[in-house]
């Protein structure tokens, strides 16, 4: 639109006066400059938001968890948990990964953030699935 306005302003005569004036291109250039400024400001703003989000994501995902790996107990960052690790879960702990309950002792999970159900869900061999982001409210496993 702005480029077309510049071309028309240079080539076509003014419809009111009928004369070809060399100032008709100014409107097109002004539009082009305005659009460029808006695009740059938006891009810089989006970049800064993305940078802050990535920094927040890096810091918020660094939570130590107790695991058993290759038969030995470890304390690792939740981001370092891999398939095959066995997590030790206690009441009050938020689960940072999806998983299965291998052994539980009165383990009940708050899955309201994922399912909307407000009651604590008992986890055992009948319902062994753990969902990332849920919290243990009772027991351990």
UniProtKB/TrEMBL annotation:
Keyword line: Magnesium, Membrane, Transmembrane, Transmembrane helix
Q: Which GO terms describe its cellular component?
A: endomembrane system; plasma membrane
Which source organism? Eutreptiella gymnastica
Do the record's keywords include Phosphoprotein?
no
For this protein, the record's PANTHER family field holds: CALCIUM-TRANSPORTING ATPASE, CATION TRANSPORTING ATPASE
The name under which this protein is listed is P-type ATPase A domain-containing protein
Q: Which domain of life is it from?
A: Eukaryota
Sequence intervals crossing the membrane: 25-44
Its membrane topology is listed as: Multi-pass membrane protein
Gene3D superfamilies per the record?
Answer: Calcium-transporting ATPase, cytoplasmic transduction domain A
One Pfam family recorded for the sequence: E1-E2_ATPase
Principal localization?
membrane
Q: Which GO terms describe its molecular function?
A: P-type calcium transporter activity
Which positions fall inside the P-type ATPase A domain? 63-139
Where is this gene product found?
Endomembrane system
């Amino acid at each position: 639109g702005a480029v077309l306005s510049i071309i028309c302003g240079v080539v076509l005569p003014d419809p009111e006066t009928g004369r070809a004036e060399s100032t008709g291109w100014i409107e097109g250039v002004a539009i082009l400059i305005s659009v460029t400024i808006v695009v740059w400001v938006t891009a810089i703003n989006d970049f800064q938001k993305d940078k802050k989000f990535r920094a927040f994501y890096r810091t918020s995902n660094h939570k130590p968890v107790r695991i058993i790996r290759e038969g030995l107990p470890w304390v690792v960052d939740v981001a370092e948990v891999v398939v095959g690790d066995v997590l030790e879960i206690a009441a009050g702990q938020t689960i940072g990964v999806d998983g299965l309950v291998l052994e539980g002792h009165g383990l009940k999970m708050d899955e309201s953030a994922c399912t909307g159900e407000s009651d604590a869900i008992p986890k055992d061999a009948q319902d062994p699935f753990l969902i990332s982001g849920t919290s243990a409210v009772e027991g351990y496993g």
